[in-house]
From TrEMBL, chain A:
Lineage: Eukaryota, Metazoa, Ecdysozoa, Nematoda, Chromadorea
GO molecular function: ATP binding; ubiquitin conjugating enzyme activity
Name of the protein in its database record: Ubiquitin-conjugating enzyme E2 G2
GO biological process, one term: protein modification by small protein conjugation
Known EC number: 2.3.2.23
Organism of this sequence: Caenorhabditis latens
TrEMBL record, chain B:
Reaction it catalyzes: S-ubiquitinyl-[E2 ubiquitin-conjugating enzyme]-L-cysteine + [acceptor protein]-L-lysine = [E2 ubiquitin-conjugating enzyme]-L-cysteine + N(6)-ubiquitinyl-[acceptor protein]-L-lysine
Main location: endoplasmic reticulum
Organism in which the protein naturally occurs: Caenorhabditis remanei (Caenorhabditis vulgaris)
Region (Disordered): 542-634
CDD domains: RING-H2_synoviolin (cd16479)
InterPro entries from the UniProt entry: HRD1_E3_ubiq-ligases (IPR050731), TPR_SYVN1_N (IPR057992), Znf_RING (IPR001841), Znf_RING/FYVE/PHD (IPR013083), Znf_RING_synoviolin (IPR058051)
Gene: Cre-sel-11
Protein name listed in UniProt: E3 ubiquitin-protein ligase hrd-1
Entry annotated with the keyword Transferase: yes
GO MF annotations in UniProt: ubiquitin protein ligase activity; zinc ion binding
Domain RING-type: 309-350
Top-level EC class as recorded in UniProt: transferase
Biased composition (Low complexity): 584-611
Compartments, record wording: Endoplasmic reticulum membrane
Amino acid sequence: MAGYALKRLMTEYKELTTRPPEGIIAAPIDEDNFFEWECLITGPEETCFANGVFPARITFPQDYPLSPPKMRFTCGIFHPNIYADGRVCISILHAPGDDPTGYELSNERWSPVQSIEKILLSVVSMLAEPNDESPANVSAAKMWREDRAQFEKIADSLVRKTLCLPASEI
Amino acid sequence: MRISAGWIFGGSCVATAATVLNAFVVNKQFYPAIVYLSKSNASMAVLYVQGLVLVYLMFQLLKSILFGDLRAAEAEVNRIFVYTLDKCILYFQHLSERTWHAVLETCLAFTVFRDDFSAIFVMQFIGLLFIKCFHWLADDRVDMMERSPVITLRFHLRMMTVLAALGFADSYFVSSAYFTTITRGASAQIVFGFEYAILLALVLHVTIKYLLHMHDLRNTQSWDNKAVYLLYAELFINLIRCLLYGFFAVIMLRVHTFPLFSVRPFYQSVRALHKAFLDVILSRRAINAMNSQFPVVSSDELAAMDATCIICREEMTVEAAPKRLPCSHVFHAHCLRSWFQRQQTCPTCRTDIWQGRNGAAGANAGDAARNADNNAAGAQPAAGLPPFLPFIGHQFGFPQQAMGVQAGGAQAGGQPGPFPHQIFYAPAPANRPEFMNMMPPPPMAMGGPPGMFPMMPPPPIPQVNGTTGNAEPIIPPANPSYNLLTMEELHRLEGNTRDAIIARLQAMDNIMVLLESAQMQMVQLAAVTPLRRNVVVVNTEVSEEEAPATETVPTDEPTQEAEATSSTTPPQPRSIFRDNSFNTPQPSTSSAPPVPSSPSTSPGPSTSSRTPEAEEVRQRRLARLLGENPNQQS
């Protein structure tokens, strides 16, 4: 009998391939190793990240789903809730108990009921609505608050980069 | 800017070749060339580096034989090793923590034995590092068994070879270190010996894990207890490690000085032991909770709902014994257990399971009380206590429950003995649930089967009369379950405040009412017994007819006595408390479901001495008793 975490990841993989949610693709990088996933997230419509396709990597712990996975964007992304190295700071990925930010409600935290799909959907909504109350990237949060135009410009150039488009059309 | 391994090999080989060639060119002959090489520091450095490179190549060869291609996580270890070599050659560059600590500590250890420092010593040190790396690799590889979808035969073959080889190597080095120390006295071999002993413990741990995983793999069903065994194995190994470190520290203190270099690993293993111990405790607690507190869901219930366990996303079957939490969410028992080890909340709604359970207990108590009421007389709101006397309410939690008990007793045909008991047992309604946990479950249906009715011994009516007349408190028989009370609660039970005394008096009043009703029951009994001799089948109509008859016709002596008792009852406590706000609500009597049409028919001789209210209450109670007894008999 294969491991507990492996079975659950296989089930989730099957679900994600049979009924893929809109704007999200996720799969293990290598079918020999189900604990390392790659996913592509399309930026939510009508935001500055619209039309962008952002690659990210999800690393699952050995005791998944009891512990949350870790998620990292592999493209450089400028967002208040994403660290400069791409790590995503979102409450659904934080285990209950330790509260690194002191802002999060326990009912937003990780629980085995959550799934890869829910994580990715939360990340999409995080892209649409950054939480500048507890920023991971302080300069991004500051710019989001004070200089929205500049923030959108940076986001736009990022979207262009992920789509392999030239830097600016004008 | 890590220099790649290939460059190092190439550079090292070229340098060695150049040095050796140079020596031979300069000296022309073999022996002088060797002497030249061993005397020249630069040449020796180049040769040492070459030796390291060769050892590394051997490590790679062994690794590829024993482990094959490394996976991402394991490649980390491999890279660590490359980094270690880099460090040996290129001084502190990109060193990973684990190897860094290993190197640092061993170096620290060698400062203690600096007399022994030699080339052989360095080689031993590097050999130790290699073997450590193999241990770490084996550990990671065994953990991978749980994560990998396919385990091939080759994997098992490799794993067994690795474990056997490592175990053999470790024991060999431990024994050689031991004998060296015995024959030549304490030297750096002690450090090596202990390093290998600890590695031996690691091999043991890996072996246990491997066997457990293998057993799990051979089973087609999921093996729930594996996690528990793994926990115990970890606890055991950590204990061994701690003991080894402690032993090592003691020996080092006796032979040399305090082993500063072993403080960090010692602290780490103590912490790991502590964590393993806590894990075991939490796991045990979770298992206990699983076994004792949460009900197993039946197959019917499973069929009625979505039977997917949301933790493991698999179907729940009855064989897996899914458990229902107080918040009515259902999961696999083993899924819940592993989650409860971390968090004592419902995974879905995050209700605290202990809180939920207490709440449920309170609710159950409330339900019980309500059921008792329903049995007795119909719906009575559970919050029947005066709200400002929550504790006293519990202490003399009389109102609705006692009535329920009374009804139960009445149904059973009257058992006056246990009544005072139950008054003090009466479950408090939901406002004191945590206190409820200490109390035994409320006695619900305490009546014997109806068939026992005629065999009941006659109750001691005259005594009851006496007590009722004097309004003496009935001392409840000593109850074993009071042992559960703490000192504080006992002190609170003493209750000499005004409220407590009022409640006590009230309870006495209630007891009196109970006794009265019991008495009436006995009267009924006395009246019914001759009837039963004549009429076997007694239906409700008969009993309705009977009600006024027994009341009005004072033929039997007990009846008269009862009437006399009620008339002689000093109205004092009643008149004090009946009218004030502490009054007992009289739930069962005010809403008796099958009230026969008796109240107006019986103006007894003693009626004049009572208040009309009390008389009516009495009449209703009588009617109810009459209404219930024949039901039971028929």
